[in-house]
C-alpha cells in the first residue's frame, strides 16, 4: 500500500513501513492512514443527505477529505475520497513481472483495495482511478491552464532517479552507494528531454502560505520540515517522461507522458465529478474544492505541501485547507520489510482479531502524526484490557444484574436516575473533551478519554455494589435500580462517541440497550447528551459484545485450572459477572 497516499500504488498485501497506505484511512503503511481512515467514515452517517433550511438558503460547502474522519457525527456533509494511482514506470514494470498488461494489472490491484477497505469496515464516497476517462480529461485541462500561465517549458534534465519514488533525487540526500533514503535502493543516472514546471517561480508565495497559515501543514514538526525545504530554495521539476509509455500523453507532445505525480495529485479534484457527467476541471472544482484535509504519509509530504500548492496556484485554483502527514509503523521495534519476513498483512490481522480490534489498536496506540510500533503482545493486552474488560465486561455485568433483578427493564429515566450524581457531569465533560480531540486529529487521546469514561463506570459500579443493594431490598434496591440505569446510560454514550473508531462494537452495544440498527445509523454527536434511556425501556438478552483474545498462555492456564479444579474452567472476563 502506498504509505499514507490517497492514491495507492502497490498491492495491499503487506504493511511494510513506507510501503503502504489504513487509508482507521486508517487508516497506515496499514495502518496509519488506514487507521485514520477508520476514524470516521466507516458507517456512513448522512451520506447524500440534504441539510438545506426551509428558507432555501444554499447548503454549506462540503467537508472534503481525502481520507476519512469522524465529521459525519457532526452532521457535516462529508466527501471521503480514496482511490488508486495507476500510471508510471513502476506500475508498468510490476505488471510485466506478473505477466499482465498494465490496465489488467491495475484492475486487479484496484479491486483488492476495495475489498480491503470493506474488510476494515471503511466506506468512502468517491473512489477515483487515475485511468478513468474523467480523470484524464481533468489532467488535460489542468495542464493547459498551467501552460497558459507560462509555467511549463522544455529542457534537458540529467540526474539520479529513484524508480520506486518516481522522482529525481539530490545527491546530497542519498545514502551509501547513492541509495534512496526511503527505498534503500541505488538510484540510476538518467538524462531526458522533458517538460518542466516552474516551481521556483512560487518560492515567495509558498513561503507566505506557510507563514500566514501555520496550520496548512500538521503536525508542527512536519511544518518545520516543509519550511526547511522551501527556504533552501525551490528548483523546477520535470513533469513529463520520454521513456515511460504507461501514462497520460502530454497534450502538446504525445511522444511524452505526464509525470505520475503531476497526474495523480489531480485525482483529488477529478474524484469530485459524478460518474457520467461531462468531465472538465472547472466542473470538478465546483463540486466541492478545495479539500478540507489531505491525510498522507510523511514520505510524500514534499509532493503535497510544496509541489501541489504551487501547481494549484499556477492554475488559479485554491489550495487545500490543510495537509496532515502521518508516520510509519515498525514491528517489534524493527523496520518492516519482505526481506526481513516481518510484514503485517491487514487482512490476516482482521481475520485473527476482528476489525474493531485492529482499528482501535492502531488509533489508540500510535499518536497520530508520529511513527508507531506494532507488537502482537501489546496488541492483545491493549485490546483485551480496553474493549473486552473495560467496555465489554462492564456492559455484560450490568445487563446481567438488570435481567436478574429488574427483568431487563429500566425502572427510571436516565436523567432522573442521575440527579445529583457527579458521574453524569464527569461523563459530559469527558465527552466534550473527546469531541475536541477528534476535531484536532488527536485520535489516540480521544480513545484514552473514552476509556476514562469506561473506567469511571467500572469504578462507580464497584463502589456502589448494586448486587448487594438488591439483596437488602426497599430503598437500597431502588437505589441499585437507579445505579444500573446510570451505568447503562454511560455505556450508551460510550457507544456513540466510540463509533468512529469501533463501529461494529458500538452497534452491538447500542442494540443490546434496546435500540434498533436503524436508530444507530441515524445517531449524531449531539446524541451523546445525557438522557437517552427512558423508564420502561427493555434491554436485550445480555451477550458478550467483544470476545477476549485468548493466547497460548491463557490456554495453558485454563488447561491447568481444569486439571486442578475438577474440570471447572477459569472464568473469562467477558462472561456474565455478579460480584
UniProtKB/TrEMBL annotation:
Q: Which residues are in coiled coils? A: none
Major enzyme class: ligase
Task: Name all Methionyl/Leucyl tRNA synthetase domain ranges.
Answer: 172-399
Q: Where is the Methionyl-tRNA synthetase anticodon-binding domain?
A: 422-556
GO cellular component terms, A-Z: chloroplast stroma; mitochondrion
InterPro entries in the cross-refs: Anticodon_Met, Met-tRNA_synth, Met-tRNA_synth_2, Methionyl/Leucyl_tRNA_Synth, MetRS_core, Rossmann-like_a/b/a_fold, tRNAsynth_Ia_anticodon-bd
- The annotated region (Disordered) lies at 546-579
According to UniProt, the reaction catalysed is:
tRNA(Met) + L-methionine + ATP = L-methionyl-tRNA(Met) + AMP + diphosphate
What's in the keyword line of the UniProt record?
Aminoacyl-tRNA synthetase, ATP-binding, Ligase, Nucleotide-binding, Protein biosynthesis
> Biological process GO terms, please?
methionyl-tRNA aminoacylation
Gene Ontology MF annotations? ATP binding; methionine-tRNA ligase activity
The record's listing under PANTHER family reads: METHIONINE--TRNA LIGASE, MITOCHONDRIAL, METHIONYL-TRNA SYNTHETASE
Q: Return the NCBIfam families for the record.
A: metG
Provide the family line: Belongs to the class-I aminoacyl-tRNA synthetase family.
Q: What is this protein called?
A: methionine--tRNA ligase
Q: What is the lineage of its organism?
A: Eukaryota, Viridiplantae, Streptophyta, Embryophyta, Tracheophyta
Amino acid at each position: 500500500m502506498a504509505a499514507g497516499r490517497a492514491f495507492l500504488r502497490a498491492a495491499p498485501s503487506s504493511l511494510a513501513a513506507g510501503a503502504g497506505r489504513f487509508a482507521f484511512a486508517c487508516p497506515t503503511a496499514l495502518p496509519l492512514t488506514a487507521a485514520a481512515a477508520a476514524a470516521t467514515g466507516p458507517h456512513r452517517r448522512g451520506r447524500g443527505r440534504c441539510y438545506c433550511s426551509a428558507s432555501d438558503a444554499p447548503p454549506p460547502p462540503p467537508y472534503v477529505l481525502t481520507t476519512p474522519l469522524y465529521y459525519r457525527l457532526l452532521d457535516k456533509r462529508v466527501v471521503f475520497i480514496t482511490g488508486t494511482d495507476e500510471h508510471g514506470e513502476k506500475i508498468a514494470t510490476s505488471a510485466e513481472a506478473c505477466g499482465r498488461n498494465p490496465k489488467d494489472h491495475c484492475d486487479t490491484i484496484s479491486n483488492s483495495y476495495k475489498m480491503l477497505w470493506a474488510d476494515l469496515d471503511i466506506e468512502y464516497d468517491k473512489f477515483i482511478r487515475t485511468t478513468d476517462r474523467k480523470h484524464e480529461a481533468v489532467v488535460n485541462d489542468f495542464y493547459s491552464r498551467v501552460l497558459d500561465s507560462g509555467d511549463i517549458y522544455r529542457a534537458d534534465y540529467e540526474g539520479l532517479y529513484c524508480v520506486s519514488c518516481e522522482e529525481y533525487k539530490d545527491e546530497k540526500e542519498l545514502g551509501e552507494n547513492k541509495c534512496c533514503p526511503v527505498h534503500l535502493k541505488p538510484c540510476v543516472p538518467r538524462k531526458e528531454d522533458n517538460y518542466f514546471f516552474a516551481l521556483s517561480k512560487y518560492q515567495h508565495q509558498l513561503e507566505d502560505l506557510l507563514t500566514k497559515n501555520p496550520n496548512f501543514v500538521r503536525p508542527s514538526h512536519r511544518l518545520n520540515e516543509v519550511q526547511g525545504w522551501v527556504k533552501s530554495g525551490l528548483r523546477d521539476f520535470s513533469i513529463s517522461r520520454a521513456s515511460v509509455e504507461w501514462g497520460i500523453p502530454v497534450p502538446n507532445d504525445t511522444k511524452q507522458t505526464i509525470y505520475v505525480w503531476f497526474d495523480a495529485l489531480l485525482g483529488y479534484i477529478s474524484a469530485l465529478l459524478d460518474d457520467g457527467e461531462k468531465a472538465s476541471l472547472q466542473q470538478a472544482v465546483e463540486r466541492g474544492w478545495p479539500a478540507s484535509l489531505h491525510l498522507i504519509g510523511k514520505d510524500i509530504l514534499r509532493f503535497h505541501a510544496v509541489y501541489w500548492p504551487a501547481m494549484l496556484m499556477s492554475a488559479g485554483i485554491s489550495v487545500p485547507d490543510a495537509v496532515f502527514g502521518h508516520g510509519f509503523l515498525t514491528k517489534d521495534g524493527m523496520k518492516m520489510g519482505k526481506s526481513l519476513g516481518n510484514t503485517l498483512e491487514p487482512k490476516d490481522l482482521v481475520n485473527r482479531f476482528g476489525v474493531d480490534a485492529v482499528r482501535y489498536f492502531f488509533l489508540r496506540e500510535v499518536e497520530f502524526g508520529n511513527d508507531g510500533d506494532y507488537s502482537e503482545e501489546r496488541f492483545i493486552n491493549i485490546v483485551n484490557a480496553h474493549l473486552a474488560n473495560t467496555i465489554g465486561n462492564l456492559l455484560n455485568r450490568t445487563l446481567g444484574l438488570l435481567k436478574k433483578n429488574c427483568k431487563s427493564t429500566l425502572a427510571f429515566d436516565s436523567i432522573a436516575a442521575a440527579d445529583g450524581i457527579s458521574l453524569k457531569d464527569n461523563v459530559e465533560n469527558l465527552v466534550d473533551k473527546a469531541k475536541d480531540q477528534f476535531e484536532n486529529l488527536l485520535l489516540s487521546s480521544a480513545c484514552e478519554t473514552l476509556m476514562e469514561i469506561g473506567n469511571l463506570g467500572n469504578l462507580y459500579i464497584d463502589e456502589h455494589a448494586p448486587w448487594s443493594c438488591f439483596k437488602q431490598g426497599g430503598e437500597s434496591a431502588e437505589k441499585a435500580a437507579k445505579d444500573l440505569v446510570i451505568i447503562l446510560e454511560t455505556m450508551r454514550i460510550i457507544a456513540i462517541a466510540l463509533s468512529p473508531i469501533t463501529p461494529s462494537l458500538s452497534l452491538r452495544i447500542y442494540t443490546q440497550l434496546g435500540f434498533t440498527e436503524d436508530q444507530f445509523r441515524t445517531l449524531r454527536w449531539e446524541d451523546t447528551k445525557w438522557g437517552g434511556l427512558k423508564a420502561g425501556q427493555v434491554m436485550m438478552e445480555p451477550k458478550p459484545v467483544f470476545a477476549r483474545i485468548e493466547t497460548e498462555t491463557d490456554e495453558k492456564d485454563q488447561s491447568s485450572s481444569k486439571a486442578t479444579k475438577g474440570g471447572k474452567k477459569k472464568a473469562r472476563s467477558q462472561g456474565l459477572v455478579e460480584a
